[in-house]
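hi! just following up on the protien thing from before. the input was this:
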Amino acid sequence: IVAGERHLSRFSLSRDGRVAALVSTPTEPAEIFAIEGATLRPLTTQNKALMATLTLSPTESTSFASKDGTIVHGFLLRPPGAEAGKRDPTVLRIHGGPVWQFYFEFKPDWQFLAGQGFAVVACNPRGSSGRGLEYAKAIYADWGNLDAQDVLAAVDDAVTRGVADRDRLGIGGWSYGGMLTNYVIAQDTRFKAAASGAGISNILAGYGTDQYVRDYEHELGTPWANFDAYMKVSFPFYHADRIATPTLFLCGEKDFNVPLLNSEQMYQALRSLGRDTQLVIYPGEYHEISTPSYLRDRLERYAAWYRKYLRP
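and the predicted 3d structure came back as:
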């Protein structure tokens, strides 16, 4: 009904047919609008005063070919005032799910990192929603393979465009984004810093301790009958010695979705290997960090970790 690159995240329909919706764009945080035909009429201006004080980065929509030729959709931001022809330290951000997607919405973490001097690269790799069943099922029982190729292709694309500095690359994500971060750094050494949030790498440890036992059994089978399938998707933990990237692990203390023990295991593995690593646990928090001071802390820790390793 409403055209343009925007994200409608919530809506409410009245008894007489009127529609109110929560809508954002990459440079406008969500506000409530009345949808009148194909027109959006603003009902709130909650963020107007704040936005007037900030310099934001435009979000560019991209597309590129992955390793096997599959076309992948992505996003690219440069720091405000970035110089043409100058390459920036760059952070690859990975979404959770994996059946989810990045939308044309306001992403405060992207804007924050851009404001700290980093280019931000993101994409919707195979396994994402919004692109048909086969695209989502492409990583079925094969996590960290085709989706890893797709996110690496996003970085390659940013390098080809002259935006990303191939010697100053970071990576990070939350939930499956943390998992895929681990998958990527366990098979590719180009990243100088990683931030892995609420992820899992030892899927055997997940069986019976998280909320996905039905999914595991449907997709991988049971561990005693299909041990090799579990080992195949657990390679970041069982081959942690392949990881050279300094990695920051973060998780909520009470996360029952992807429990803390998974981040603890990866942290301990890298610690035992003598890699530079940290573990941050947010007290009383579940899978989605919600306390405002913790949300701010997480952003600041991301920026500090990337600054430490991606600056010359």
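The first helix runs from residue 48 to 51.
The chain has a mean pLDDT of 96.
cheers
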